[in-house]
Amino acid sequence: MITRLRFLATKHAVLLGLILRLFLAWFLPRLLDNERFIPGVAYTDIDFYVFTDAAAYIQQGQNPFNRATYRYTPFLAALLAWLPNLNYGRYLFCVADTLCGWLIVQFRKQRREADESSSLTDAFWWLYNPLAINICTRGSAESLIVLLPVLTTVWIATNYSQSTWAALLGGICHGIAVHAKLYPIIYSLSFICAFAKTEETSIHDQRANQSSVTRLFDLLKTWIKRLLQPLPVIFAFSFLATFVGLTMLAVAMYGPSALQEGLLYHFSRVDHRHNYSMHWYWIYLARSDPVLNMAWAGRLLLLPQLILLVYTSLGIAPLDLSLALFVQTFLFVAHNKVITAQYFTWYLCLLPLCSFDFQSRRVVKAVALLLTSVVFWLLSAYLLEMQGWAVHRLVWCASVVFFGANVNLLGALLSTCNVRSNTKNKIN
């Protein structure tokens, strides 16, 4: 019986994952949204109501940005407006999330010979992942507007990096992702470097005996030559053309608010409400202090991320694109001024594509510490938000512990990683 169930769960993982999502997307809101079981807590994500309200405005011939707090691409609301029922948007997100899971399974199968048991492991990474299922069934659009275009671009850049059409199509997918959700712009340099890779001997090996300054200048000259090759130029051009074109179209259709609310707002966003970020507490304290310049503080927080971004793009992406993107996303989320649960899916969809030893004792301990920190944070946040206790410092301490656990986990993962060719990495 167990063998039969294992076979079905492996053979029909995509279909079962989709059915599971669709059922839970229908059942759980009806069970929990009336707040009978947990007073004050509803299952449906508040963002889903924002999406559907904006779509309703479009159906009425109005601007989707008339809906307060709608700060997404207007084309998401326009897409939902075409559905016969706005609530069907939740099921559309589930389909997109299932496609993400299918891409992850295909990616892992391609990069090593997979038997039946390993295929089931592949499915558990996303198709049967409780967090991924929870995020999409609650009504989050992350899988549709961001994760699917990002994974598609990774697939193209990894498997067809020497093709002109791949560079063009990859740039278009990347442009869609950045227009829909600004954060994938951090991947741009890594994608360009992946298309700029050559079969030459490692730059570092060639200049091992040179001085540091000479090696640095030679490295810069070499990368300038590489980045000016046709394929990276085609990718960059198609990406910029798609991103700018979609943004201009949005402005033409829905006015300046499409630019302000859908794009520029995210550069200046400062959220003082408690969240997983360790920065929320000082933002909370400084919101009423006119002396503190929150905008400059936010920009300073980007500096360490920028340094790490350039390093991983030039040093890792040409060898292992998936690893570079995972490290960049993980660090970006950990250092961000705002962190919510859906942000975790940004790097969790890339984690299965990396060649980490997940059975390492150090990794297991790091994961246990991270889960403990999450439980600590959730309990602290519950006391603050649901019970009304004045435990702001406790929640902040939990956020700091969570940050430390994230850094510890990344160190543990990297200690087990073997960086090799983009197409030859062994996946466990």
From TrEMBL:
Q: Which GO terms describe its biological process?
A: GPI anchor biosynthetic process
The source's domain of life comes to Eukaryota
Top-level EC class as recorded in UniProt = transferase
**Record InterPro entries:** PIG-M
Membrane topology summary: Multi-pass membrane protein
EC number per UniProt: 2.4.1.-
In which pathway is this protein known to take part?
Glycolipid biosynthesis; glycosylphosphatidylinositol-anchor biosynthesis
Subcellular location per the Swiss-Prot or TrEMBL entry: Endoplasmic reticulum membrane
* UniProt GO cellular component terms: endoplasmic reticulum membrane; glycosylphosphatidylinositol-mannosyltransferase I complex
Membrane spanning segments where?
12-29, 233-259, 339-356, 363-384, 390-414
| Molecular function, one GO term | GPI mannosyltransferase activity
Do you know which PANTHER family this protein is assigned to? GPI MANNOSYLTRANSFERASE 1, PIG-M MANNOSYLTRANSFERASE
Please describe what this protein does: Catalytic subunit of the glycosylphosphatidylinositol-mannosyltransferase I complex which catalyzes the transfer of the first mannose, via an alpha-1,4 bond from a dolichol-phosphate-mannose (Dol-P-Man) to the glucosaminyl acyl phosphatidylinositol (GlcN-(acyl)PI) intermediate to generate alpha-D-Man-(1->4)-alpha-D-GlcN-(1->6)-(1-radyl,2-acyl-sn-glycero-3-phospho)-2-acyl-inositol and participates in the sixth step of the glycosylphosphatidylinositol-anchor biosynthesis.
Q: Family per UniProt?
A: Belongs to the PIGM family.
Please give the name of this protein. Answer: GPI mannosyltransferase 1
